[in-house]
Amino acid sequence: MGQVLIALDQGTTSSRAVVFDAQGRMLAAHSEEFPQIYPQPGWVEHDPRAILDSQITALQEAVRLSGVNVADIAAIGITNQRETTLLWDRETGECVHNAIVWQCRRTAPMVDRLAAEGYGEMIREKTGLIPDAYFSGTKLCWLLDELNLRDRAAKGELCFGTVDSFLAWHMVSGRPHVTDATNAGRTMLFNLAAQDWDDDLLRMLDIPKAVLPRVVDTSEVIGMLDTAILGRPIPVAAMAGDQHASLFGQACLTPGMVKNTYGTGCFMLMNTGDRLVRSEHGLLSTMAWRIGGKPTYALEGSVFMGGATIQWLRDEMKLLTTAAESESVAASVKDTGGVYLVPAFTGLGAPWWDMYSRGTLVGMTRGTGRAHVVRAALEAIAYQSADLMGAMAQDVGELPVRLQVDGGASANAFLMQFQADIMGVPVVRPQVLETTALGAALLAGLAVGVYGSIEETAQVWQRDLTFEPRMPEEERQRLTRGWHKAVDRARDWADK
Ligand code: ADP
User: Fold this and answer.
1) Cβ contact 262:415 at 8 Å
2) Is 462:431 a contact under the CB 8 Å cutoff?
3) Above pLDDT 70, what percent of the chain?
4) Distance between Cα 350 and ligand 1 center (Å)
5) Is residue 120 predicted with pLDDT exceeding 60?
6) Whether the CB of 77 sits within 6 Å of ligand 1
7) What mean pLDDT is predicted for residues 390-414?
8) Which residue lies with its CA nearest to atom 23 of ligand 1?
9) What is the residue with the minimal CA distance to atom 18 of ligand 1?
10) What is the 411 CA–ligand 1 centroid distance (Å)?
């Protein structure tokens, strides 16, 4: 059997396929962008056809570019934008509506209603999530309401799925209607402890069970790739939400290990092993993965404005020509001169959860210049991530020994050094920064025996650079106090 592994990385703005060898080296990759649809302010949709077509093209192109023999492909793993909701006809496969994207706020009033009716605590308890329009459950409910489809759904004529589920149904022979536990865990319908759909939650949103996919393991052969796609049947052997795949691709396999992805936003996940930790600090409990029927849990927190803060400096403030330039500009001054930027443009997430916070620039003096502001923006990404790390450490009772990083902005050495300094924990960057794709490939390889055990997949992970904390403790505390003072200034600003 060949040893080539392929990841399908279906993201929010593009569909990507990456070809790896069994040592985790990238042989080729190809991305296809597709349009974003904004029918109303705050609403976001994708054309399901565009998702599927772009993903199939990306796969075919990546295989062609890699030059590998299709017969040498051992398995394919799927990883995907999470929570995005699709509903299709079980007979024809046609979607009844565009995909409702995770960012879409159309069901915010429904979530407010659930909270007002006192469902908040039950949702938290069962799903580990904080009730929000972000998750799939209310999006599915909206589709059933709006298109008057409850009867058809109850008769089993319709299939609900997140993107993993949708791709599996359309790309795997025999049309399996499945989703993996990491994706199920983001629907607000899945009971984390019981590892199954929850009757009370389904009743809460009046969702018929017949519409739901079967929940499978994260690493498991769900079927063979439709022969029409690459000319041969190949096992499709993993499905995982993007952040979960990245946690696996970072080899965060033991409790206490943490990764942070610095993209548009930042996503931090900590493996908590078989312990389902309930956060006291506004973090989400979620799946890390489920393998061999055994759930591994995680804590998750996110920073809304990560790399997007740098985009804002470049595109709106015109302080930078490229994002990468932020590094040399920040390093051109020895500190921010007491300036803090709190990029709470859309409110603040964990551990603050204040939707009424707004962006704030404080501590300016007559000598404040462009470099100070740029530096304050990069530092803000690190402070927000450090706050998440602090919340996780308090929830599990100990500070992690290191933070593993990836994502576009992890290329910034100034940011990574400041991150290590402000957390007082080493920051480790791996050689393969495409950890999401790598994780999906490893999970697929594990299911078909390319790797003999979970531990064996970890050998693929290779360290590139370590940023050791060098800042004196006193200074770390002084700067962090300043940051929290600045956060206070940003809070409770917008009119309710
Ligand atoms: P996403 O997957 O969310 O689109 P990426 O992982 O591609 O994000 O990272 C892109 C983000 O990282 C952008 O917001 C960009 O501003 C930021 N970024 C990219 N390179 C750098 C850099 N060298 N320094 C700081 N930020 C950067």
Assistant:
1) yes
2) yes
3) 100
4) 21
5) yes
6) no
7) 95
8) 324
9) 409
10) 8
